[in-house]
Amino acid sequence: MSLDAKTDTHSTWQKETQKIADNIRLRVLEHTLNNNGGYMSQACSSAELFAALYTKILNIGPSEAPMVPPPFLGVPANDNPHYQTGRGYNGPIQPDLDRFIFSPAHYALVLYTALIEVGRMSPEGLKQFNQDGSSVEMIGAEHSPGCELTNGSLAQAVSQAVGIALARRFKGDTGRVVVMMSDGEFHEGQVWEAVESMSFYKLDSMIVYVDVNGQCCDGKMCDVMDVEPLQSRLEAFGARVFSVDAHDLDALLAPSQVEPDGRPIFVLCYSNPTKGLDLLETRAPKLHYLRFTSEEERETYRLEYQKMLKERAN
Amino acid sequence: MEILTKVHAHNLVAWAKDKPQVLALSADLTSSTEIDLFKNVYPERFISFGLAEQNMMSAAGGLAREGFLPFIHTFAVFIYRRAFDQLIDSVAYPNLPVRMVGFLPGITTPGGITHQAIEDVALLRAVPNMTILEVGDVTDIESVLKVSENIPGPIYFRMLRGEVPRLFAKDEPFIFNQARVLCEGTDITLISSGICTEEAIRATAVLKRMGVSIQHMHVSTLKPFTDPQIPAACAKAKIGVITMENHTIVGGVGSAVAEIMAENAIAKPLKRIGLKDTFAHGASRPYLMREYELDALALVKTVEKLLGHELDITETDLKAVRLEAVHSTAKAEAL
User: Fold this and answer.
1) Which of A203, A200, A267 is nearest to A230 (CA)?
2) Same domain, B205 and B326
3) How many CB atoms lie within 10 A of CB A106?
4) Rounded to whole angstroms, how far apart are CA atoms B38 and B115?
5) At a CB cut-off of 8 Å and minimum separation 6, what does A257 contact?
6) Residue A233 pLDDT greater than 60, yes or no
7) Closest C-alpha among B286, B307, B281 to residue B296
8) Using CB atoms, which residue from A78, A156, A168 is nearest to B66?
9) Is residue A3 part of a domain?
């Protein structure tokens, strides 16, 4: 059987969305196996978040972009009329619709996979991942599918989203600006500058979902540079904060449905970076990138993949 | 010579009147960067970001993406030193129309190293998609926003505040990527920018009396730097070329002219007047211009070096020069 086989559609949204999340993990693992490398722990931690964003949380229209992403069309410049961002995958720009701002660029593989699982991109698109001349870049930039900002230097997206939210307020838009971030970004001072401005300008049209997986490139954040307690720190900055289980779909959805009260919303999604793939725990504490050290190791993951595929079928 | 105050303040308010998309962004330097008037006249178009330039720079990118024309106002150093990463990723790469108005260029402030933008042109010249405009007088300031209207990408303005002299005729606005020819000559070609042009005019008045034939050009567009007048003027100089800038000699106008001379195979001596690969310190502008040899006397000494003999010009001679707003010799062609 193939990963792209149709699944049962007669069930609750939670079941459907959970299937999407499971498929995100599976597809990222499949990609990692085939390419001997991938951002696996990010898929484990944020699969439910991406699935919930694209199925329930985001109020966006259908994709306006081609199912198979176009090749890279050159950098933005006055003499390059062909340049376009990957924003179209998140639907049209309309005053009443949400805007989705994807921040942690190294989660791109998870984002692309989510786009596939929700039918906004063809599985063919992922074959272009990290291929020369492709827009489906390893570290997503604003021309990559689902992206509209260049965010590989972490922590800039939330500030750019502040500008977008201010602009939408000037224009009288009713749609929200929904940002997806990773907790490692909170090391950067710029994030806190952004939060103070969100509170000061009462940007309650902003809702920031944070994958709090406790991981950064060097290992566990509490060993590298601790950012906890995030909830009370953000609250002290004037934000409205919800701490939720990142693998509980109802818990992820609920904060997006509260009445705005003037405060920007942060949803801290506490996640397990090996969720759904216990084998990955042998790599702890360094989970940032999975590259197999031997064929034997790859084989253990291949067996796990087969097992997950079988479980999904049942 | 006419001296005006708060030229940018009034110019911005007048220019933005029928442009609702124009916003002024401040990082807690509202009166220091002359946008207090804008704030009073258009309070709904003024955004205070506090001392948080990184967030302000990225947010400006977001505002520009949504069709607004954000004018960041702060001291130049905080634009390109504090928020360089944000300037590149959030503004320059996406080629967004963010206007960065940087004050206190070079040694125009007693604020010392932390406030003196001495390597801004060098850094920003290296950034793709950037346009760099530097003002040297009232007429430049009065025309710089109009010039910016046709530039789709980001612009860095090297701006002057407070009392500014009018060096150029009021009815001769600066033209994008076109040097002003202030006097024509064949011995030495002098290319000056910013506040150095006033000093240069002072010196050239005396030098001309001493029989030195000088081609003096003032440049306000530092990037792009493709005005064909520049290589032509360098090529015709019999003795050599001098650049004069309120900036380090590394990477600024002097380097730009050197690149043009090399690419056009113009084999002439080039002397670069500017900060000689050194930081400065906090002191008055005239004091620093003398200390770091950026003034009229420094130009005279440089000319003497190129000529190979002394001209017997004193500081008193230079101070006695009465400056009047000059008409560009290129006026006929410009029109």
Assistant:
1) A267
2) yes
3) 19
4) 24
5) none
6) yes
7) B286
8) A168
9) no
Token readout for B98 is: 């963010």
Banded model confidence at residue B58, pLDDT cuts 50, 70, 90:
very high
**DSSP assigned state of A142:** T
Which of A73, A154, A160, A169 to mutate to test binding with chain B, by most B CBs within 10 Å of its CB? A160
Residue A1 has what pLDDT? 42
Considering only CB atoms, B152 lies closest to which of A78, A161, A170, namely A78
Which residue segment(s) compose the domain that A222 sits in?
A: 13-313
Domain CATH for A247: 3.40.50.970
pTM of the prediction? 0.95
Distance CA A139, CA A144 (A): 9
Residue A117 maps to a domain: yes
Q: Residues A79-125: pLDDT tens digits? A: 999 998 999 999 999 999 999 999 999 999 999 999 999 999 999 99
Q: Which residues of B touch A (CB under 8 A)?
A: 47, 49-50, 52, 54-55, 57-68, 70, 85-86, 89-90, 93-95, 128-129, 152-153
Give the closest residue to A85 by CA, choosing from B86, B93, B127: B93
Using 50, 70 and 90 to split pLDDT, how confident is the model at B329?
low
Q: What is the mean pLDDT of chain A?
A: 95
B107, B279 in Cβ contact below 8 A?
A: no
State the total domains in chain B.
2
The alpha-helical segments, DSSP class H, found in chain A are 13-35, 40-52, 108-117, 123-126, 156-171, 189-200, 221-224, 230-236, 249-253, 295-313
Asked if residue B219 belongs to a domain, the reply is: yes
Distance (Å, whole) CA A283 – CA A290: 8
My answer on whether B36 and B148 are in the same domain is yes
In this structure, what CATH number is given to the domain that contains residue B272?
Answer: 3.40.50.920
Taking CB atoms and an 8 Å cutoff, what residues of chain A touch B85? Answer: 153, 156
- Domain span at B67: 3-165
Residue B330 pLDDT greater than 90, yes or no: no
| Minimal Cβ distance to A197: which of B55, B66, B95 | B55
Interface A:B, Cβ pairs < 8 A: 101
Closest residue in chain B to residue A173, using alpha carbons only? B66
B60–A150 C-beta distance less than 8 A: no
pLDDT at B331: 42
The mean pLDDT value of chain B amounts to 96
Neighbouring residues of B251: CB distance < 8 A, sequence distance ≥ 6: B119, B121, B122, B123, B125, B126
B35 and B106 both lie in a single domain: yes
DSSP state of A55: I
